[in-house]
Structures are given as structure tokens and as C-alpha cells.
Design brief:
The structure is a homodimer. The first copy, chain A, is an alpha/beta fold. The first copy, chain A, has helices at about 20-30, 30-40, 45-60, 65-75, 95-105, 120-130, 145-150, 175-185, 205-220, 235-245, 260-275, 305-320, and strands spanning about 10, 80-85, 110-115, 120, 135, 140, 155-160, 170-175, 195-200, 225-230, 255, 280-285, 300-305, 325-335, 335-340. The structure holds a DNA duplex.
Chain lengths: ~350, ~350
Amino acid sequence: MTTPPKTSTKALPPGAQRATSHDVARLAGVSQSTVSRVFRDGASVTQATRDRVEAAARQVNYRPSRAARALTSNRSGMIAVIATKPSHRAHPEVLYDLGEEIQAAGHRQLVFVLPEDRVDVATVHDILSYNVDGLISCAVLDDDAIEACHAARVPVVLFNRESPAMPVASISCDHGAGLHALFARLAAYGTPEITYLAGPAKSFVSASRLTGVREAAAAAGFAIATVLQGDYSFDFGRKAMTELGGSGVVPRILLAANDAMALGAIEACRRDLGLRVPEDVAIVGYDDVPQASWPSFELTTLHQPVRDMAAAAVSMATARMDVPEFQSEVRRLGATLRLRGSA
Amino acid sequence: MTTPPKTSTKALPPGAQRATSHDVARLAGVSQSTVSRVFRDGASVTQATRDRVEAAARQVNYRPSRAARALTSNRSGMIAVIATKPSHRAHPEVLYDLGEEIQAAGHRQLVFVLPEDRVDVATVHDILSYNVDGLISCAVLDDDAIEACHAARVPVVLFNRESPAMPVASISCDHGAGLHALFARLAAYGTPEITYLAGPAKSFVSASRLTGVREAAAAAGFAIATVLQGDYSFDFGRKAMTELGGSGVVPRILLAANDAMALGAIEACRRDLGLRVPEDVAIVGYDDVPQASWPSFELTTLHQPVRDMAAAAVSMATARMDVPEFQSEVRRLGATLRLRGSA
DNA sequence: TCAGGAAATGACTTCGTAGTCAAAGACTAA
DNA sequence: TTAGTCTTTGACTACGAAGTCATTTCCTGA
């Protein structure tokens, strides 16, 4: 398995300490205060001194210590992001999207990968001990946890989640328009009845999608024949569809709470049941993962604007950083229908 | 698009400052030093005082400030991870894997999402300004950049990359055994010739896979008929295969530098060329992404042990944190053959 | 040329914890 | 009991930059 590690050692240069503002000050012939001012915005420094200081700083590779800065100004330049293990299934790139946006906003992303889909006060206190300037959570936060952030004046943004009780800033997805368009389209099949493959019961996203589907179906005069509770996996979609086929009740229209299950169902139709999509079964997913557009699948799905949601989350967080009073806001970006071959 | 934001404001409790070690000390009737000792490991405190201090700390939700701790002890409890934009294509879950391992090791993951696949000294100095305890890079680092980390006594681990010149710790993938097994299998087709869909020229991973394939092919008596330079995308794989088919030279065996291109090639065979896989064309990928095992594709591929590599990277980093002298080590985990239907 | 005001700069203190050192307390052996 | 060792504790300072305030410098207009 492992190549026998070729290990070698090498002595390090001895006096390799990072330069401080005092070092730069001495080198540039100014005071430490002045060096500090050069590296702070809104400071008033002569262009000449600024040049001298910057030259000196460059010479010794000086960068202000974030730790020291955090201590005095209470701003660390970091935004914490809570990500849960299962959350990466549908959109593994979320951390990259958020990371880019955070970076672009001049901050850094401190990631906490946590096992559970619910985060408590203890975790938040740990996060707060890093003096983060903001918190974006892809997990559900306890009311206490949110309260703790508010008390510490750290803006919180819930990502793809909303808090039912606590007032808090959140960015999530509005299913309304997309689902409306979808059902308008599905009406063409002449069978106003759907089968729904839902996500896990306790998941916020799952619940909100189910609600959205129920409302849109009702509005469009559709009945929901069956709701099967799944786990967002390809395999579940495949098995569920196979079982439906085996029991003789093949749905005319199948909606899934995410793309993986929808793709699994398509597989089941083709491989296991010998059914054609969309001629025999129309199948619709949710998310618009890259594979949805692959020619093998051509999955009609609801596109969730993850990238835009990430940008919104970061801008909501940064906007609140300098505002002393807490601001609640429920923001939703619309999901759009991606009409492809499967329905 | 956006729901009219229901914005409400709410006054914050006034004296909501985070508790300090002094507060806890006062509450517990001890000195600040003692509080500090309780929250440090290897300290010597009586059980009785420890209990009192911990009770007081719990009462006011005290956690030591990481910023202050970083300032005095020069340990921030964070490991920086450099991730590049394109790197997420094959294994978007890397940040989750690394994140979990880092968390398990008692540290936090500070993510830098950067556009380029090459990182210079300036970036590293920025990273070092956060006082990180280690750096795991999924991007190529300049020699200067590595040098800067060494000088700052911050252990560096290159992830899925190796540095040709600089001595450094790295964890990457050994293609040897897996490719050997693959070619042994491919010999059954009786056509000792392959076509290879490579990755981008400047990419380290791409280059190392190409080298691996060349060596294994030579060892097994295979010729490489064509090498096409791709971009790791599904679309490129599909187009490349279609063009090969259109020009009349359909390869008997096609190897791709990643799964996405291989899957694209399978698509092209089925949809565009009417060829059967593996009867007409045998196709092999690299990575073992989830879709490779989907019944639609059944892609034979080389599995890259990302999870294990993440664990190794973190343990290599943490192991070096308390060691004063720098230790170089080239560690490789073997890719294993996942034999499925496509070859 | 000089007064008045704005801009630039430096001395000093602060942030919250870790570590150093010395003092006090507990315990052991004779 | 007493000297000697080990453990526990507290006073004090360092860490590196930011902010406060006082001082100096630079301009402007009369």
C-alpha cells in the first residue's frame, strides 16, 4: 500500500521568526503606530511614509498578525461555515461556492464539518471562541445557539434552511414558481396524480420541498397518490421504483425530492422494469446536478440556484457585521424549471 | 425572485460581552493563572479547584479566546487548506473529508479557495498571518512558498501532488499496482493498443497519471496509439469519442484520465456512434466517482482512496507540529482496480 | 511674517491568555 | 519535630497590533 517513506531531515534556518510591526517600524525609521496605520484602512499617512513603510514591510515579508488584530479590534477576518456530513450529497460544491464568495468579500472561511444535522450552543460557543465575524450555517441551529450568536454580536445566516420560531437571517429556496410551471407542464399527461419520493423526515429541506409540492399540486388540481420516504440516495430511488413496478402500480408521474433518487428511478425503469421514460413514466427531480443534463438521463428537474444563494448568504452576513442591531430577514431565491427529456 | 424581505429589528441585551479568564477567576475565587491552567493540558491543578473553575466557567459560558491563545502560544488550532477551483470536479467531497479528519484531530479547517492551480509566496504569507498550525495544499506550491512555511515552522503537506524539486511532505496516489492489474485484464482483448484521454497539460495529477499509464503500458507490452489532451469534462469525453468514431478509427480500448471523460465517451458510443461497451469499445476511467457504479454505466475504473489520503494528510501534518526539525516524506497510497462492466 | 487649524506622527495603554518565577502549602523521611 | 522535596497557586510580564491622546509638522490666509 504505502511506499516505504523516504524520510530525510534538514536543519531549519535558526532566526526564522516572523517580522512584527516593531521590526518594520525600526527598519523604516517610524513608530509602531505608524506601521499599524499603514496597514489599516481609513488611516491618515503621508504618501512618503507609506512608501517607506511598505518597502520595509516587503523587505521582511511583514503581514499584520491576525491573532493580535483579532485581540484588539475583535475582528478576525473569518466567517465560520457549519457544514453537515449528509449535506454534501446534493451540492458538494457548496463549500467551494461559499468559499469563493467569502474570499471575494475579503474574509476567510473557517469550516466546521459536523456529523449531526442539528447544532447546539456548545458548538456555537466553540465557534465564537475563534472571534469569527460571522456564521453561515448549513445545519439547523438551536434557538439557544442563535441566541448565543446574537449576544456575541455575530451575524448568523441560515443557508438553505429557515428557523421556524427564532427571528434570524436566512437564505433558502422558493419552490413556488418552479413547481407551478412544472405542474402546468405535467397537466399535458392527462393524469392529475403523482407519486412523490420524499427525503428524510427530520430534514428541513425535505420538509420544505414536500410542503411546496403539496401546495403546488393542490393548486394545479393534482392528487398525491403516494409519498415514499427516502434518503436522497440513488439506490433508494432505484429500489422504490422497482418495488412500485413489482407491485403492479406503476405511477404515470414520479416526482423525487432530489436528483439522485430521480436518476435511480430512471435506472429502475430502464434496467429492471423495461419501461420507457417519459412515455410510460414521467420522472422529475430536484437540484439540477451535473448528471441531470447528461444525455443518458435528460432529467427534467428544478434548478436550485446554489451559487446565487451562496453569494446572498455572504452578502447578508457581511452587511450585518458593522450594524449594531440585529436584523432578521427571510430571503428566498426561486427554483427554476429545467425542462428536459424525462418529463 | 426574492420574497419581499420581512425585516424586523430587535434590541440586543446590553452587557453581552464574552466572559474572560479574569471573570471566571473572580467568580471561582482563584487567580487568572489558575483558570488558564485548567484550560490547558498538562497543567497541575487540584481536582477541587478544577471543579470550582469549571463550574464557574460553565456558568458564564467561558471559552478561552483563540486569538489571545494564538498570540502567546503561537498555536491557533487551525489547519489551512488550499483548494483550487478546478480541483473539485473529480472529488468535491475532499473538503468534507479533510474537514472531518482535521476536526477529529482537534483542529479547525481554514479554507482558502483560490482560482489558480499554482500558489505563490504572497498567498502563503497571507495564510501564515493567521498563525495556522499546519497547511495542506491541494494546489501546487512554489518552492518559495514551501520555503516560507518551513521558515515559519509550519508543516506543509501536499495533497494529491508532489514537489519535484523541493523536499516536502506529500501524500499522493500510486498508480502502479492498479494499472498493472488493469493491463493484465485488458490483455484479454487481444489488441495491445490503447487510446488515452489525458487531462490538462499543466496539471500535476494529469501528468502523473499519464506517466503511470505509459509505464504500465510499456511493461505490459501495450502501445499507446493516441493521446488526446482533454479538460476532465464529460463533454470533452463525449466529443473526443464522437470525433474518433467519425474519423473511422474507433479504438478497441479507451483509457481516460478521469471518470467524467470516460462516462462521456460511453455516452458517445451509445448515443452518437451506436457502439456497444465493452463489446466494441472497452472503456476505463479513473477516480471511481459515485456515478461510475451506476447500472447505466458500470464503469471499470481505478479507485483513488481519497478518504484515506485525507486521513494521511492530516496525520502527517499534526505529527510534524511539535517536531522542531523539518521532515520530508513522499507517501503514496495505491489506486485499486474496480472491475465493472465497461472493460 | 505670523496666527490658526488641519494633518501626520509618536508614546502609551489595552486586548485575553500563556508562561515564568517565586511563594506557599503538602508531604516524605529521618 | 524538622529539613527537604514536590505540588499547587498567584503576581507579573510578554505576545503583536489597534486605538487614544498629545505633540509636532504642514498649510492656509491675512
